[in-house]
Amino acid sequence: MATAREIKRRIRAIKNIAQVTRALQLVASSKMRRSQDRVLAARPYADELLRVLSRLVRASADEDEGNVFRGEEHDDADLSLLQEREVRTLGILLVTPDRGLAGALPGNLNRRALQFVQEQRAELGNPNLPVQFVAVGRRGRDFVTRNRLPLLAEFTNLGDIPRMSDVRAIARVISDAYLSGQVDRWYLVYPKFISSLVQTATPVQLLPVQPPTDVAEDDAQANLDYIFEPDAGSIYAALLPRYLETMIYQPMLESVASFYAAQFVAMKNATDNATDLADDLNLSYNKARQAAITNQILEVVAGANALS
Amino acid sequence: MAQRLTLQVEVVTTTGLVFEGPADEVIAPGGEGQLGILPRHAPLMTTLTIGALHIKHAGSEETLFIGGGFMEVSDNRVIVLADDAERASDIDEARAEEARRRAQQQLDQAAGDIDRAALEGEIERAIGRIHVAEIQRRRRPRRELPTQG
């Protein structure tokens, strides 16, 4: 049995750890709340953008088929973001946290990303389909390089509030790789924030753009005879990059919220465990101390007996 | 009496809802020139450029700075998807001026095309902001002028 002093030392060490994890837990809980607010604040823009895009798609489908694609002034490049083509290379934009101490979250994300690649390969009937990764966040970057997977670009240390200029840079890498034919289909894998207890690694298709098709009842009957200014093609050309940015921005915000939520839970568990362990050790310490005292008394008594 | 028709206006940016409310008339900085929107306007989708968005309702007027974006009008609903937006009363003119000066300075020293375009955009937005703030400032004293006679 360990001596009382050894146990005492362990108790002190564990209490120190508990103090650190409790501090991290409190920080994570307040940051989680703030990052959740940011997710909610960004939602109206994303919702409206999707609604406008879906109406634009339906409105232009109502007109002469392909009419939209025949405008003169705009770049054809942006419109090809809509067109499906044969998938020869898959692209995964992996959105992960930069830091650890968040329980199983980063591991789950990375595992889900690989699993998703396998699913896609099976679905497309090509078990050797090449994959390109773009990593946002250190955890994903480390995972990709550790497994010697092809990494197209990495964006790390973007902070808790991703800046629009960073998002734009990521969107440019994604769309450039798509337009140059380097990648034929892009997916994004990110930790979807479902609640402070549940975050799920979720894949979403980025490119080609999948216009939202689910529309509300009243919306389906809306008058779609739009006037376009300057023309539908130009609006597409301006709207699609915004769409891509939003599709990346929103998951990045959610990833931050998910990270803090996961960290909060992980740190809370760590604190609870440390407290339990300290309690158990305290009991052992008391026993050890009592045993030592009993021993000493026995020795004294035995010594006295020997003298008499 | 039939209810007076109004527009329902919503201005959103990636960082949140900037304005939500009813309006009798909206004047927007359309990509092809200024656009006036009244109730019962035909469905419209347009790009917006940097400029001032005026929202008039019941005799009062709210002015917002818009840093480009889109506007959709349908069914008396006006949705402005702005890349950047700020109420005129919230604009910090000194900060906008500072941002303009800084961007101009960087532009003078900068090399490379991408940098250049971004900085020029920044300057344009700062100028737009200052301009909107000036409109707001000029409007206020006028109301306080005593009537002649």
Structure description:
In chain A, strand 4 and strand 5 (199-207) form a beta hairpin. The radius of gyration of chain A is 29 Å and the shape is elongated. A five-stranded mixed β-sheet of chain A has the order 3-2-1-4-5, with helices on both faces. With 308 residues, chain A is of the alpha/beta class. Chain A is built from seven helices and six strands. By secondary structure, chain B is of the alpha+beta class. Chain B has two domains: 7-88, Sandwich (ATP Synthase, domain 1), CATH 2.60.15; 91-144, Single alpha-helices involved in coiled-coils or other helix-helix interfaces (Up-down Bundle). Chain B has helices spanning 93-109, 113-144; strands at 7-13, 16-23, 25-30, 33-37, 44-57, 60-74, 77-82, 85-87. In chain B, a hairpin with a 2-residue loop joins strand 1 and strand 2 (16-23). In chain B, helix 1 (93-109) runs antiparallel to helix 2 (113-144). The longest helix of chain B has 32 residues, at 113-144. The model of chain B has no long low-confidence stretch (mean pLDDT 84). Chain A binds chain B through residues 38, 41-42, 44-46, 48-49, 51-52, 55-56, 59, 164-165, 222-230, 232, 234-235, 238-239, 242, 246, 249, and chain B through 10, 12-17, 30-32, 35, 42-47, 70, 72, 74-75, 79, 81, 83, 118.
